[in-house]
Structure formats: structure tokens, C-alpha cells
Design goal:
Layout: E1 40-46, H1 53-68, E2 72-76, H2 77-85, H3 99-120, E3 132-137, H4 143-153, E4 163-169, H5 173-182, H6 195-210, E5 225-230, E6 235-239, H7 244-253, E7 263-267, H8 272-275, H9 287-304, E8 319-322, H10 326-331, E9 349-351, H11 368-374, H12 376-384, H13 397-413, E10 418-422, H14 424-434, E11 451-457, E12 462-468
Parallel strand pairs: 1-3, 1-4, 2-3, 4-5, 7-10, 8-9, 8-10
Antiparallel strand pairs: 5-6, 7-11, 11-12
Length: about 500
Amino acid sequence: MNGSNDGIMSGKYEDNPTPLTDYNPAPHHRRKPFATNGDKFALIMVGLPARGKTFIAHKIKHYFDFFHSAPTKVFNAGQFRRKLLGAKSTHKFFDPKNEKANKTREDIARKTMDALIDWLRGKNADDAPLGRIAIYDATNTTRQRRKWIIDRLMPVLQSHRNLIFIESVCEDKEMVKQNILSVKLSMPDYEGLDPKSAIEDFKQRIEHYKQSYAPLDGKNDEQLSWIKMLNGGENLTMNRIKGSIPGKLVSLLMNLHTFPRPIYLSRHGQSLYNKQNRIGGDSGLSKEGEEYAKVLAEYVENHILNPKESIARNAKHSRLYISTMQRSIQTTKWIKHTVQQDGWVSMRPRRFAALDEIYAGKFDGMSQEEILKQAPEECKRREKDKLNYRYPRGESYADAIERVQLVALQLERHRDPVLVVAHNGIIRILYAYFKGLSREEAPFVEVPHNCVIKLVPRCYECDEERIKLVNSKKVQDIESSFIMEEDE
């Protein structure tokens, strides 16, 4: 019998291949999943300027890229305009009475749509159609324009339900004002122009679009698939939304908002298994870990619940997310849970199995020396593809990313501070998502012990601050010396 461990490679992705043997000459090899099952989707943004369409488009792109490994691309008409005409376009260019500019804008729309369709028609190396999600980011405020979009895209898509309009409506004047001040003034169109003149010009641009704006509604657009967002997600209305990908899209949109708030990420304190150089397990904290737990509680009281300057809506309404594992629970046991006057319990712990560490399978509880001695080939395979490598009878980073998305959506929704105390692999995933990193980069994010990472997500960036709480000698960390580093 052939006992060779050389699996048959099937494409670029292979996870824990079944050995080729005499009794199994054609073993099953796990291939990379098709996130959209081969389907193509087109998401069409709709709305007046300064309504957050581009913010929404890029959040959708990153969400599907990161959590579902679905190739997603944004096609922004404004970027095509600046590429073709340069950056300096005043409000007069958008005046519907400007016939010359109207023809130019129609040409820009065609070029943007041509690029989108070419991308959607892309094929892989085997000449098989690729499942993709394309996002057309423009105002698309008239029914005439939306009909033109439908006519162009229907020959490319498998179903009319794969064409979804996403309209952002904002009736909150203060929200529109803040969007103009925080985002639009930094546009290349207004570079070098004083803020007062830039604001006035942009307001006139909005007025030009209002003249022909026809919102989506249940009477005139009953046959279309669409989602309407009001005031940055306060209210969501849907029409003819069905299927897996559209369902995931709705889950994201119903949690989005643009309010800045702090998200604090921390690994648990040093565990007994950390100290013994073992991975996985469910051990409690070491003496050093207990020390960090007490210092963390002080930090929560002085800097999260009672900050000198609060960017969140209500710091007293701070939340605490932990895993179900002992080292995470024990790291937060000194944090106070004060009942506020309105009945809210500050830092009430919520335990999520989705935050548990990546399961090491048959290596759970083993030391690095034992694994290196017993399974050197596994170490090489993991080094080759850390994202997709799955521990024998355990999990991979890709598996963990799939379950962590549920917590990430919760964090997207909250407007008050949240502290997450979890594990190395899990904190890496959350950090990578909110910082806009790719899923391929997530396994390599540096997350030290005894440190709180403060993230403040904003419209198009995420601020970061790292606070070292304990400056004792370096905690024993398998990460630094061994390829099978998770988790601790």
C-alpha cells in the first residue's frame, strides 16, 4: 500500500489533503469555495451628493472581500470624471441646463459602465465565469438613468434579482452638513479653494441634482430589487430582496452608521498554557495574567467609562464582549458592572462562542516541541498558507473569519464604546477588518500581550492607538518562535 503524504494539488488551494493510497487513488481535496456560487451581482448606488453613497459602497466591498472572499469592486463615476477631465469641476458642470456638460457626463457614465461590465465578464484560468460583485457608485437619481442601467446590465447578469439598487436618503440636515465638512471639502475638486466657497459650490451642485431627483418607491419601482436607507441606517426599506448574497447585504446595511466611537481590543492575560509553551486548551491565568486583569480593570474605569474627552454617544453605556474560554473570562473578572440611573449595566459581560480561539484540533494542548517532533509536515503546510491551513480536526483562520463576522456586525452597529477581550487569532481578525486590511493580511497582525488597542472607525479611515498597560518582562509567547502559534 502506498503511504505517500503527497496530495494531488487541485488548483491553488488545498486544505488537509487526503493521502493518495492504493485503496483511494482519487482522493477528495477541499477546494476554495465560490463565495457567490458563480453568480454575478451588480449593486447600484442611488442618491443625492453628500448622502454617504461612497462610504456605503466601500463598506460593502470590504465586507464581502473580507468575510466572504467574494471578489468585489467599486466603479465610481466621479473618479472616472476626474481621470478624464481633471479635478476642477465646479457646480456649473452639473447644471442640467448645461447641454455640453450633460453630454460629457453621459459619456462618463458609459465609460464607467463599460469598465464595470468588462470586469463582471471576467473568467478564470479554466475559462469558467467568475462570481463577482460590482458596485456602480454614482447619483443615478433619474428613472431614465436607472432604466439605462438595467438595459446595459441584464444581458450580463443571471437574474434580474442580481441587480439591486441601494438608495441613501438623508433628511437630517446636520448629518448632510457634517458629511460635506468632513469629506467633500477634501475632494480634489476643491483643492486650494477656501472652505466657505467650496461649501457654497457643493450646495449648488446638490440643488442641480434635486431638480430631476426621482426617489425609488413602491409604486413606480415595484418590479425592481432595491434597498432604501434613511439617515445613515436609522430606517431600512426593502423591495424584492431574496437569496443568500442579498441577505448578507441587508445584514450589513442594517448595522452601518457613520458615528465615530471607540472599539477597544485586548488579548487575555497570560494563561498557564502560555507559560508552559502549549497551544489551545482552556487553562486559567498565570500570576502575570492575573496582574494584567487588575490593571485592565483600572484602565476601563479611568479611560473607558470616565474618559477625559468622550467621542462616543454615552461612555457609561460601554459594553464588554468576551469569549467563553476561562482565560478571557478571568481577564475581565475585576471590571466593575455599575448600574446607571437609567438602568443600564456598564460593562455587562456578553460571552460569544464566536470569539473563542481558533481550535487547534488534535494539537490542542500540545507544546511546540511535541508538534514539531510528531508533525513536522503540518508545520510546513501551515507556513505555506497560514490563512487557509486547517489544524487536523480543527479550524483555520478562514473558518474563524466566517464566525467572527457575526461579532463584527454587532460592533458596526454600536455607537457606544465596546471592549473586546479575546484571543490572538480573533483579535487579529477584528483588527484587520476595521483597519481595512485584507483577509490574507489578518493572520500576520501583531497583537502583543498586556496591551489595549484602541480603534476609532470613521468614514474612510480608522484611527489607532496602542496602550501598553504592563511593562514587565516579555510574556512567554509561542508566536515569536514557533509556526504553530495560535493560540494562546
